[in-house]
Structures are given as structure tokens and as C-alpha cells.
Design goal:
- The chain is an alpha/beta fold and 314 residues long.
- It has two domains: 134 residues, Trna Endonuclease, Chain: A, domain 1 (3-Layer(aba) Sandwich), CATH 3.40.1350; 162 residues, no CATH class.
- It is 56% helix and 13% strand.
- The strands form two sheets. A five-stranded mixed beta sheet has the order 1-2-3-4-7, sandwiched between helices.
- The longest helix is centred in the C-terminal third of the chain and has 29 residues.
- It starts with a helix and ends in a 5-residue tail after the last helix.
Length: 314
């Protein structure tokens, strides 16, 4: 069954095919950065006997004049039938386009990643008629992007890294870095990679952390846009008392959202919330304090570390 996580794992290469070259260059396989990229049909059915479809197929033209095909397959688990399919894809694409094919398999767990690496030998033991060697990107070789500065340098790679490492203990740290980097980029880029990341994380606990992190700007921060809207409202001559009431109502709503987000992340991290701590959280009306607790919850190793570290300094 094709899942949203499956879709995001390969469609991110449609959004930025350069991730492929940049990642493998860091792994010691220098590849030319794409100059132009063409999205090709993923249908690799021949005549009609059996329908076969790739996840993503791109034609890469490099600045040096070379060209190759990049076939991207998102693989969620071991599947012996895929070995035959991948061999078929490689030979079919070469026969159809007369360009060298590169098969890229992207995985979210190390066991599947190791299995997919091959090499896949087709033929008798004494003589291999065809050997398929996929490039594989998974949690064992994709660099973990854990700082905002690094994430901001390459948003697509940071998003792909976060998706690939969705089960990693540092997933919360990586998602925090990506969220902070997205706040500093343009609205279109932020919207695209926010959605791709959420889809890629699927139903993992990291997905809950991500949704709560992306709710923080509206729950905790007064952006320049929000300030502008409030100023425009005042300029229209709204009665001062009603304006204050709206502000107080908005503040109460932000506090409720902040408390709900904090409790969801605590639950997703597996932290036990005592009755005493629950009361403390619900009684807190300070958005800055709630925001500080939430940021600490994403990366802390224990619930005590969150609330001890968040105590105001005397």
C-alpha cells in the first residue's frame, strides 16, 4: 500500500533533485550538480502484459554536458520481488532512453537500507548476466542535520534528513532545527517543506513532535504580519475596550494551544506526567514559559530535565 510517507520519500527529489548529488558527494561519491532536470513519465510498462511504475523518474543534464536518468524508489520494508523489478527498470530505461540509468532507493530503517544495497545478481552462480547496484540513502548514511544553521544552508536536505531519521533518538532535535530554519525562509519554501516533512514522517511519534513544533509560531510568537494586522485593526477605529477583550481572548486561546501542544509532545516522548506536574502546566499562563518548556521537551532525556532547567534564575 502506498502511504503518504512513501510518497514524500521520493517526491522530495522532484522538488529538489540536487539532494541526490549533494548527499552522495558528502558520502565520497562526487557527482556533478544538475544543471537542468526533466521529470519523465514513471510508467515503465512494455506492451501490456504487466504494469510497472517507478516512484519518480528524472532526467539529469549536468553542466559538463553529460546526462543520466535518476530512478527513485521509496522502500519501506524488505521485498524480494523488488530485486526483479529494479533489474527490469534499469534495463528498460536504458533500452528506451539510451541514457545510463541510476537507481536510487531511499529507506527509513537501517535493515531495509542494508538489504537494498545489493549487489543484485541476475543469472546462474557461475555467470552473472546482469548485476544491479542501487544507490541507497537511509539512516545509516544520510547525515543527521541537528543545528538550525546547518538546516538553513540546505532546507531540502534537512527535510530529507529529518524524514529519513524519523525513528532516531535525536529526531526531535533535527525537527527543531528544521522548524527554526523554515521560520527564516520564504513562505512558499516553508509551506512546501513543512508539508513534505509531515507526509514523510507518517504515523511516527516524530510526526506529533513536528505538528506541535509548526504550531508554535501561531501559539507563542507575535509575528510581524500579526502585528501589522493588529495595527490595521486599531487604525480602523475599533473601540478600545472591545480591542482589549479580543486581545485577552486571543491570549487565552494561545495559552490553551500551548498547554495542549506541550502535553502532546510530553506524551509522544513517553514522559510520565504526574498530577502535580499536570496542575503546574495547566496553571501556567505565561506563553514564554510554556514555549521554553516545549522547546526543552523536544530534546530532553527526562521530564525532570525539562522542568528543572526551565526554572527561572534567581
Amino acid at each position: 500500500m502506498v502511504t503518504s510517507s512513501h510518497e514524500a520519500m521520493h517526491r522530495i527529489f522532484q522538488q529538489d533533485p540536487g539532494i541526490f548529488a549533494r548527499t552522495f558527494t558528502k558520502l565520497g561519491f562526487p557527482l556533478a550538480e544538475p544543471a537542468t532536470v526533466s521529470l519523465l513519465t514513471t510508467d515503465v510498462t512494455e506492451i501490456r502484459p504487466l504494469e510497472r511504475r517507478l516512484d519518480t523518474l528524472l532526467r539529469i543534464d549536468t553542466a559538463s554536458g553529460g546526462s543520466y536518468l535518476l530512478a527513485v524508489e521509496a522502500q519501506g520494508r524488505k521485498d524480494p520481488d523488488k530485486h526483479g523489478s529494479w533489474a527490469y527498470y534499469a534495463s528498460y530505461l536504458y533500452a528506451k532512453y539510451r541514457l545510463p540509468p541510476v537507481l536510487l532507493v531511499v529507506c527509513q530503517d537501517a535493515a531495509t537500507s542494508r538489504w537494498a544495497q545489493g549487489p543484485i545478481h541476475i543469472g546462474i552462480p557461475e555467470w552473472h548476466c546482469l548485476t544491479v547496484r542501487p544507490f541507497v540513502l537511509g539512516p545509516d548514511n544520510v547525515p543527521a542535520v541537528t543545528t538550525t544553521a546547518t538546516a538553513a544552508e540546505d532546507i531540502p536536505l534537512a527535510a530529507f534528513s529529518a524524514i529519513t531519521h524519523s525513528h532516531h533518538p535525536q529526531a526531535g532535535t533535527m525537527l527543531t532545527a528544521l522548524a527554526e530554519a523554515l521560520k527564516k525562509t520564504d513562505d512558499e519554501t516553508s509551506a512546501i517543506f513543512t508539508e513534505i516533512t509531515e507526509l514523510g514522517l507518517g504515523n511516527t511519534p516524530a510526526a506529533t513532535i513536528w505538528r506541535d513544533l509548526m504550531a508554535i509560531p501561531t501559539a507563542f510568537f507575535r509575528s510581524e504580519t500579526a502585528e501589522k494586522l493588529r495595527d490595521e485593526g486599531r487604525e480602523k477605529g475599533r473601540e478600545e475596550g472591545r480591542q482589549q477583550g479580543r486581545e485577552e481572548g486571543r491570549e487565552e486561546g494561545q495559552v490553551r494551544n500551548a498547554v495542549a501542544s506541550l502535553l502532546r509532545v510530553l506524551h509522544a516522548r513517553g514522559f510520565e506526567v504526574s498530577d502535580e506536574l499536570l496542575a503546574r502546566i495547566r496553571e501556567c499562563q505565561d506563553l514564554d514559559t510554556l514555549g521554553r518548556w516545549l522547546e526543552l521537551t523536544v530534546t530532553a532525556k527526562s521530564v525532570d530535565e525539562v522542568f528543572a532547567a526551565a526554572e527561572p534564575q534567581s
